[in-house]
Amino acid sequence: MTRRWIAWVFLLASCATVAQFTRAPVAAVGRLLLPEEEEKRLGDELAAEVRQRERIVDDEAVQEWIARVQDRVAAAVPEEDRKFPFETLVVDDPETVNAFALPGGHLFVYSGLILQAENEAEVAAVLAHEVAHVALDHPAQQLAARLGADTLRAIALGERPGAIAQLASGIAAQGYVAAHSREQEAEADRYGLFYLTGAGYDPNAMVSFFRKLDRLQQSEPDLVTRFFASHPSPAERIQLLEQTIREHGLRGKATSHVGGFDEIQARLRR
Length: 270
Prior knowledge:
mainly alpha, three-stranded mixed β-sheet
C-alpha cells in the first residue's frame, strides 16, 4: 500500500512538472507602448498598406492552413498576453525566407519560408517566435525607437497624413518593421518555445529551422538576405534555444497537428 501511494505521488508530481513546463509564463502585462485601441488602429492601417504593396498568395487553402497553425500557437499564449486577435497572411515570394510581425497582431510569412521548412512544426516555430514578438509588444517598441514615441502615437491617432504609407513602403521593401535588438530576439525565442510546446509541437522544431537557416546562409545567401537583415545570426540562438529546452524540460514529439503540409508546399510551387 505504501509503495502504491509513493508511486501515485511521484506520478502526480511528474504530471505537474510537465504542466508547468508547457504552460507559457505571462509575459507582457503592462508592456503595451500605446493604448490597445491606438495600437490596433496603427497595426490595421499598416497591415492594409502592406497587403497592397506585397503580393499575397491568392489561394484560400494556403491562407486557411496558415490561419489554423497560427490559431493553434496563439491558443498557447496566456490570456493576459493576448491583447489582439492574430491574423497571418502568406506573401507570394518563393525567393525570400522571412516572416515579420506588425503592431496589433498582424503576421506575414513569405512563401519561401514555408517551402524551405521541413514540416508543419518548423512553420509553427516561426509563427510562435513572431507571436511572441507581438505578445511582448516588440513591433511597436521598435517603431517607437526608430521614430520616437510621440511621433508613433501621432501616427496612430491619424495626425501624420502619409506616414502610414511611408512606413508600409519601407516594410514592403525591407521585409521587416525594424531590426529587433539581441535582447528582444532572445526573449521572443524563449517565449516562442513555450508557445510552441504549449501548442503540442516538438520544441526542437525551432532549433532545426535555425540550423536550416544557418546552412542556407552558407549555400544560398540570397534566400535569407532579408531574414538576416531583420534577425541576428542563428548560431548563438541555436545554443540558447537548446539550453532553454534542457533547463525547462520542454518536450514534445508532434511535427503535425493541422496536417496537409505537403499539399500546401505543392500548392505554393505551382
